[in-house]
Amino acid sequence: MNPLLDPNFAYLFLVTGVLLTLMAIVTPGTGMLEIGALFCLALAGYGVYYLNINLWAPILLVLSIIPFVYAIRGKRREVFLILSILAVAVGSVFLFTTEDGKLTVNPILAFVTSVLAGGFLWLIVNKTLQAHLSRPRHDLSTLLGQLGEAKTRIQEEGSVQAAGELWTARSEKAIPVGSRVRIIGKDGFVLIVEIDKSSDSK
Q1: In the chain, what are the domains?
Q2: Alpha carbons 68 and 150: distance in angstroms, whole number
Q3: Which of 64, 78, 102, 107 is deepest in the core (most CB within 10 A)?
Q4: Which value, in Å, is the radius of gyration of the alpha carbons in the chain?
């Protein structure tokens, strides 16, 4: 039997893909989460195409994004995050059925996966939002001229380690991961950086 047509495998790919998609909304810019989400959702989509499904379940999965967006805005975060997690759990568990409407996903697998996925999403979202909403301890003006290290690929957006902290940064030219960079400006709480020319000349 094709494992991609096993409802349990399709269910796991679906949950993983949805989680990666939601996490990509919280932490955009790296591209890795988006690629992983696309890959998992494509594999799950193969199963959805060939297996029997409840038509309301994928609608519920799509709607789970709405409370999630409200959750990351910080207002009544816990309530909206719980609603989003429940929508993902119910929509994914009840998606695959037999022709007579019986659920085909193993209930133990569904329970364990839902608990782990929900707990993981709760922890990551809260920690990420706390980091985003916290005020930097430094005056960004004091960082001008300092050196840092590109922790992600930087162009329109990326991350730089400087002065012992991780900062959102952008550059006019693409900067690969691991490059030594110099801070040349700021835009609000975003650092403007360029590749450190002194390190290139060595």
Answers
A1: 3-133 (no CATH), 140-200 (2.40.50.140)
A2: 29
A3: 64
A4: 21
